[in-house]
């Protein structure tokens, strides 16, 4: 059975008076906010996939605790990916969460195969340590352009920083600093 082509040229969308209504932001601010949201979307999708990869491949002492913790991270980051994508749509910016886009722009590859708890903690600490400054940069970028987007990014970053702390705290050598 073949699928019929997608109706990408919808006449009601073209003719609808809805299309004459203004978008929430002027073009320059929409571009700034849209870029911050798109970049955040890619980072969050990348992080959620890597957390699942580790969830499945984890080995060794401390398995159960981190295995469950990683699924909490997956759930949170997927929900935030949805939030930032839908914020982009609300601004009239098309979010791109395709695997090919994430693969092309993902910050770093995750190691394949089995991974020990200690290795996973180190990998995620490195991922979060790079991701959080990027998120904070996006918070700075969006403050003037769109405080509503900035507010969302602040919430996302607060959750990421909490996850970062919890992952680091699972390392026996963690001293809280
Ligand atoms: Fe599972």
Automatic annotation (TrEMBL):
GO terms for molecular function: DNA binding; ferric iron binding; oxidoreductase activity, acting on metal ions. Pfam families: Ferritin (PF00210). Keywords: DNA-binding. Residues 35-169 form the Ferritin/DPS domain. It comes from the Bacteria. The keyword DNA-binding applies. PANTHER family: DNA PROTECTION DURING STARVATION PROTEIN 1 (PTHR42932:SF2), GENERAL STRESS PROTEIN 20U (PTHR42932). Belongs to the Dps family. This is Starvation-inducible DNA-binding protein.
